Amino acid sequence: MVQAITSMDEDFAQWYTDVVLKAGLTDYTSVKGCMVIKPAGYAIWENIQRELDRRFKETGVENVYMPMFIPESLLQKEKDHVEGFAPEVAWVTHGGLEPLQERMCVRPTSETLFCDFYANEIQSYRDLPKVYNQWCSVVRWEKTTRPFLRSREFLWQEGHTAHATAEEAEARTEQMLHVYADFVEEVLAIPVVRGRKTDKEKFAGAKATYTIEALMHDGKALQSGTSHNFGDGFARAFGIQYTDKENKLQYVHQTSWGMTTRMIGAIIMVHGDDNGLVLPPRIAPTQIMIVPIRQQEESVVNTVEEIRARLAKKFSVKTDFSDKSPGWKFSEQEMRGIPTRIEIGPKDIEANQCVVVRRDTGEKITVSLDEIEEKMAEILEAMQKDMFERAKKHRDAHVYDARDYEEFKRIMLEKSGFVRAMWCGDEACENKIKEDTGATSRCMPFEQEEIADTCVCCGKKAKKLVYWGKAY
Amino acid sequence: MVQAITSMDEDFAQWYTDVVLKAGLTDYTSVKGCMVIKPAGYAIWENIQRELDRRFKETGVENVYMPMFIPESLLQKEKDHVEGFAPEVAWVTHGGLEPLQERMCVRPTSETLFCDFYANEIQSYRDLPKVYNQWCSVVRWEKTTRPFLRSREFLWQEGHTAHATAEEAEARTEQMLHVYADFVEEVLAIPVVRGRKTDKEKFAGAKATYTIEALMHDGKALQSGTSHNFGDGFARAFGIQYTDKENKLQYVHQTSWGMTTRMIGAIIMVHGDDNGLVLPPRIAPTQIMIVPIRQQEESVVNTVEEIRARLAKKFSVKTDFSDKSPGWKFSEQEMRGIPTRIEIGPKDIEANQCVVVRRDTGEKITVSLDEIEEKMAEILEAMQKDMFERAKKHRDAHVYDARDYEEFKRIMLEKSGFVRAMWCGDEACENKIKEDTGATSRCMPFEQEEIADTCVCCGKKAKKLVYWGKAY
């Protein structure tokens, strides 16, 4: 049998590491803090890319590619931005055998490069808006790393836009947050809270950062996608101006937004179980694995191939004719999270049927071979829906309301999950809560409620409902 | 009118620069030697990626992602390889605020990373073959750069495979060269010569390098894709061994192969003309642009939209309702290389027809609106075919045979193109030819002929027919 993994209830962190390695998603490398993304992991990222890219383009996004290096003087042009990123960048100091005249960092994010580009590219209102995106890797010199969740290099997309008006920039910032939220809920089957970051938690250089926050199986939060409104701050720092219809010089208003390979970590930590990975059908590189029973029999070979060919017209389907036992194959495919397997043996063929097994529930469904296409469509669709509902139920069961600080601390100590509590708007309370409980403000949800009048921490008048949590 | 560009006959290098900039493919950046690839350029790369990736996967290739950094000790493991690349890499020496214990280069190519990975990943013959590829950017610290053709950072794919036997590695090396050749000929409409590099010109660390060589409009050669057989050289340097079926330890045999964004430069230099870029229909991001004539009339708006919707089911099609004159739009779309434009005005609508203009020939074709889908398919297919034939005719007209050194030098001085000449196999003759004429050996074509008995340079017994040329 496939080697067992640590139980998630026993040691969630070890369970996570076991799954990423045993499911063949990633592995460590000789480059400290950097991972290799193996075929099973990269195929998930390719599906994320394809689906997100399609949704981006429907909103008018165009893809570009910027240099991976940022000269130090360029990084320093926006004060808050450089303060946020300079401590964690990798510096290139030599090109070939010569020292560089000016050192350059490997991009941790590309606001400064896009601004430098837009300053030349944008002259008139006719050049606006610019709605550009790039798919690339970025580098942040983290001290402690974990596969997919935090590594020194990771893959992502970063959108960077420039608009004529503040209103347009704000609308684009929110639009992209909803593109992320819809994608994560509809395709990854992960429910999210949509909201705004507090000033303490916002992006370095942003006027406002919006976020989607997901809850992992262990009750910790994962920031899953962010969208930033920069106002005209970067435009002033970089001199990005256009001539409007009245022939007046104006600064542009900018946004940026990104989603990363950490979403593969989210899929694992929301849907996985003690048998390994569980992939939502809409993101699974292989949706159906057909396992022949008594594969030495010609009728089995022929039927499996016939069914595969029929299903391949609508689904991504593979067959496993390796020389392992069926039991071994079952365990292996469960570990890899393949949504469904179909078992076909001589007795099934005689009865003109097969057995379909759902990865999420283990449910076995007998299906007539005549209607295999329709039934697989139904089963995969039901599984996608059930996985979302199950994740939502789990999330909702781990959202707690706290009305005073003792209650807040007790919940944070005894439970794991999101705590909803009112906040006065003061960063001092965020700092105190972090110090006392380890929790940070995850977001001020768009859907505000007033569950109390006073700040859960200091007791002063409350301004906002905040989701708090311990985060990855 | 759109600003005119330099004529290609007058100054080919300036014409090239004018086209890349005016067609909106790329621009310079503040990062010396690095370019931005703008939407019109990146969309071509996306199409190259999609089509190549599909062809790769049909041969069993799986995509992965490796770190972008290579620790210095890893780069040094294979002697020839480090000698070839160390002089032109960018070095990272600091991470965050601390100096690194060991400096790392930004990958110029990833053989060493894949080898390090395979050394852990491959244990048994059951783990073979590994046929992995990655899409990424690489960095080579070039002194002189030109957009797409030679820049300090460029995008590419690099395939890296490991096999049980030398025969299998050789077969994969050749297979991938033919994948490249077929792609370039069928999709980019560029004829290529398939052959093997001489030892002097092969990849650092390779046993054999195969190449496809294309001829640009100015008669210079462009190396367009290479595939390398490493034998077991890297495997011995990195200790990549597997246990065979007889339980004996064996070294693997490896290959690598790559194609880059310089192919966008090839498209420009093979197909472009004095009006700008000309894109082969199969690679064009927009295949058809519909230009309304008298766009203020409602019947024109409605018909254009109806035709667009019908064509959009089979082609990538756009409409241009901007407030420029039709003549300006024509020039602009010609500059951008859009394969066909459709003109529709009130008189056309009355006659239930439209005018289709081919970008390559300027030919105007009157087409009934009733059969617009079939006719556009025919026109685009004919254009793709004609563009290849035209490029091939031009290439063939610039291939010269030389039987003695005086003739060789005279052709190299007076003409531009490929010179076919016999070679003794001695590197000294390659060096002398380079010094005397500036030409290098481009390849020893798979299709060998014996056009003379003796080496064109030294007069000793000839071993191989070689294509010589001045190269980008």
Using brief descriptors, characterize the structure shown.
homodimer; 472 residues; alpha+beta; BirA Bifunctional Protein, domain 2; Rossmann fold; Translation Initiation Factor IF3; 3 domains; eleven-stranded mixed sheet; five-stranded mixed sheet; globular
Structural notes for this entry:
2 copies of one chain form a homodimer. The first copy, chain A, is an alpha+beta fold and 472 residues long. Chain A folds into 3 domains: 12-271, Bira Bifunctional Protein, Domain 2 (BirA Bifunctional Protein, domain 2, 2-Layer Sandwich), CATH 3.30.930; 288-380, Rossmann fold (3-Layer(aba) Sandwich), CATH 3.40.50.800; 399-469, C-terminal domain of ProRS (Translation Initiation Factor IF3), CATH 3.30.110. The first copy, chain A, has 14 helices and 23 strands. The first copy, chain A, has helices at residues 12-22, 39-58, 72-75, 79-85, 111-121, 166-186, 233-238, 262-271, 298-312, 326-335, 346-350, 372-396, 405-414, 427-437; strands spanning 26-28, 35-37, 62-63, 69-71, 90-95, 98-106, 130-139, 153-163, 193-196, 208-215, 221-231, 241-243, 249-251, 253-260, 288-292, 317-319, 340-344, 353-358, 364-368, 399-401, 418-423, 440-445, 464-469. In chain A, the strands form 5 sheets. An 11-stranded mixed sheet of chain A has the order 3-7-8-14-11-10-9-22-23-21-20, with helices on both faces. In chain A, helix 9 links the parallel strand 15 and strand 16. In chain A, helix 2 (39-58) packs across helix 6 (166-186). The longest helix of chain A has 25 residues, at 372-396. Chain A is globular and about 80 Å long. The model of chain A has no long low-confidence stretch (mean pLDDT 96). Chains A and B meet through strand 2, helix 2, strand 3, strand 4 and strand 5 of A and strand 2, helix 2, strand 3, strand 4 and strand 5 of B.
